[in-house]
Amino acid sequence: MALVPWTYNNPRIQRSNCREQTYTFCNKNVTVYQDTEKEINVHNNTAFKMWDGSFLLAKYLENKCLGDRTNSFLKKKNCIELGAGCGLVGIVTWLLGANVTLTDMDTVVSFTENCVAKNIGHLTEEHAELNANINVMELTWGKKDLDDSRFCAYDIILGSDIVYSPDIKLNEMLISTMESLWKEDTVFILSYKPRSLGENIFFDMLSERNFATHTIPSTQHPKEFSGSDYSIFHITR
Ligand SMILES: C[S@@+](CC[C@H](N)C(=O)[O-])C[C@H]1O[C@@H](n2cnc3c(N)ncnc32)[C@H](O)[C@@H]1O
């Protein structure tokens, strides 16, 4: 299958209709699998297609690692992805040397597992140097017990396009989940697009809970997204 170079809002490509799309990250092919049978809207089945924010975040992480002479930004870091869906961000983070746990809610996690397994099998066979850990676990926001030993505190928490709901309870549950995975120097890296749905209450709630949100200048965004309305945030506490 031909590799399709990414451009944001490419009028010639309806990405959501493609069952499989293969991209190159770290000189390796990563295939994104979508469930095109499902009806997807902002309230239902959001996991089953790849959102633009995941390509943006994956490229941003790749570029950041390429520019990191000390090679320490992700290498051997413990990372967790929340709301991983098709799993692109988690897979690329693993390719960049981090130990990664991808998570999503119970109705989605087997889909995410499948997407990851289909990539990891051939990548580990072809590239013996890929020896970091990668796994997939169910994690529904707000449902993680504080003493849940399946999880630890992470160096980096990742989220692409997971802030889009105005539901106060859901945003609270997302922030509680972040808190339960947090340690002193954790950074939460988030790609976000404003959708005027009232979802920006998430950021007010973050500052009420003593998180600080740092905006990454658009000059540091991947070139494929120049002029897009996406933001990338580093959130610290
Ligand atoms: C818009 S999709 C983004 C998926 C993926 N990160 C991407 O960018 O392609 C939102 C994701 O958040 C997950 N999600 C929504 N509510 C959740 C909850 N309460 N707990 C865990 N995950 C949730 C969905 O299942 C979905 O995977």
From TrEMBL:
GO cellular component, one term: protein-containing complex
Domain of life according to the entry: Eukaryota
Record's protein name: Uncharacterized protein
Gene source species: Owenia fusiformis (Polychaete worm)
